[in-house]
Write a structure and sequence with these properties.
The protein contains 16 helices and 4 strands. The chain is mainly α. Helix 3 packs across helix 11 and helix 9 packs antiparallel against helix 10. It is elongated. It starts with about 35 loop residues before the first helix and ends with a strand.
């Protein structure tokens, strides 16, 4: 988009700056920055040639360094207890971890399904509006241009809904973000009138190390922007849906989308987008009850702390690596469940919402890139070999040919393999006899009987 200067007519108009067409891609140097290496979501376009068991990007190994050192350190207390607890507590811990993992992955998978549903309905609604909404250029050129600009604005709002939903799920309630402000600045929303938050400062090395090691005190409150706001921030995705509904009403009223089936489908698409909004909000704001989380964490740690004292009499010094390895397995499953419980965050294993939004925008831009196709333009094209492999002739050539009817005796004498094509137009019906190409080798010569 070409760079434009700030309008002098209104002091509140946002300045037009150069918009990067693909701001959602991670920079090439992100993987070498210590601050960003363990921050996600994972870039699906990048391919690692390292063996899976040696990878750290996406692994929970850094968060387990301190717990494993602690488990190895408690073995300095050489006390042995009855190994009967190993069997009893092992069953309880396995049951608790299975419950935690299944509920966490169910939330992760449900979030992925909602975003797949959003991608589908975005493509459907964009295609419906772009192809089936009329443009009144023949009535009035100015009105036709307004219709075209309205359709483009509608498709931009479809993309804006996905972008706004991504930011909402990450507790980013404003409208000034680079991928969002250029498509919602003209809408009357609460997020537009809210004051911009203070830009975040680069965190110090101690907080970065704490997040690297998974220490709870190093984690910031993700709802901090919501709590610190002094003005209503609204619900930007819902407000975008309201503006989309207003546009739908306008094209119903001016009869540019007058077929009732198309109107029903467009309203159903908006309803599906609203369902995605409420469904993802339900996943975000209804985590696993805190009582379950605390109990599972306590049961897991009791088992891990008692495990070395139950093994020391039978394993001796081997107890140290055995206990550390067992703790790695148990804590690893528990930490993975905690990380994917909220699939919309910025952890490496969370859903790549940036990539999902980028794909939705690319699909809508693909629809926008060409005028709505006219059926006669591609159906009657000479490259349309409608009767392939019976014939390589295009539809345009078949349209100009004289069709005739062959009797049964003629077909039998010629020995053609026939296929009938019935064309009914008004009062007349014509049977076109087509034949496959047939090779007949007689006396060393290859004679081909071509289609009629």
């Amino acid at each position: 988009m070409a760079e434009k200067t700030t309008s002098t007519q209104s002091s509140q108009t946002l300045p037009r700056v150069r918009h990067n067409p693909m701001p959602l891609k991670r920079k090439e140097s992100d993987d070498t920055d210590f601050d960003d290496y363990f921050v996600g979501p994972r870039d699906l376009d990048r391919h690692s040639k390292w063996p899976t068991f040696l990878r750290l990007h996406g692994s929970i190994t850094p968060e387990m360094i301190l717990p494993l050192l602690f488990v190895g350190g408690i073995l300095t207390i050489r006390v042995g207890i009855n190994p009967l607890l190993l069997t009893v507590l092992g069953f309880v811990v396995g049951l608790a971890l299975s419950f935690r993992s299944s509920t966490a992955y169910e939330r992760y998978n449900e979030g992925r399904k909602y975003w797949a549903q959003l991608a589908f309905v975005s493509q459907h609604l964009a295609r419906l509006i772009w192809v089936h909404a009329d443009e009144r250029h023949t009535t009035d050129p100015v009105v036709g241009k307004k219709d075209l600009l309205g359709k483009i604005s509608c498709l931009n709002m479809i993309v804006a809904f996905a972008m706004a939903l991504k930011h909402k799920l990450r507790f980013e309630p404003y409208a000034h973000y680079e991928d969002l402000q250029h498509v919602v600045s003209h809408l009357d929303t609460y997020a537009k009138t809210a004051d911009k938050p203070t830009p975040p400062r680069k965190q110090n090395i101690f907080k970065t190390a704490g997040q690297f090691l998974g220490l709870p005190f190093a984690e910031s409150n993700p709802r901090k922007l919501l709590k610190n706001s002094n003005v209503p921030l609204g619900n930007l995705p819902l407000e975008i849906l309201t503006h989309l509904s207003a546009y739908m009403k306008s094209i119903y009223d001016n009869e540019t989308l007058k077929v009732s089936v198309y109107q029903t489908q467009s309203l159903a698409a908006l309803q599906t987008m609203n369902d995605v909004l409420s469904g993802t909000d339900r996943i975000l704001n209804t985590p696993l009850p805190i009582a379950y989380t605390i109990a599972i964490s306590q049961i897991t740690w009791v088992y891990i702390l008692l495990l070395p004292f139950q093994l020391i009499r039978s394993l001796g010094w081997v107890t140290i690596p055995a206990s550390v390895f067992a703790a790695y397995i148990i804590l690893g499953i528990a930490l993975i469940g905690r990380e994917i419980e909220n699939p919309f965050g910025s952890d490496v294993n969370d859903l790549p919402l940036d990539a999902f939004c980028g794909q939705i925008r690319a699909d809508v831009d693909l629809i926008l890139s060409r005028p709505a196709p006219a059926a006669d333009g591609f159906l009657m094209d000479d490259a349309n070999e409608v009767l392939y492999p019976l014939s390589n002739l295009g539809a345009g050539l078949w349209l100009s040919r004289v069709w005739r009817r062959l009797g049964r005796s003629s077909r039998r004498n010629l020995g053609f393999t026939t296929n009938t094509l019935n064309l009914r137009r008004g009062r007349w019906s014509e049977v076109v006899i087509m034949c496959k190409e047939r090779s007949d080798v007689r006396g060393g010569r290859d004679r081909k009987l071509l289609a009629v």
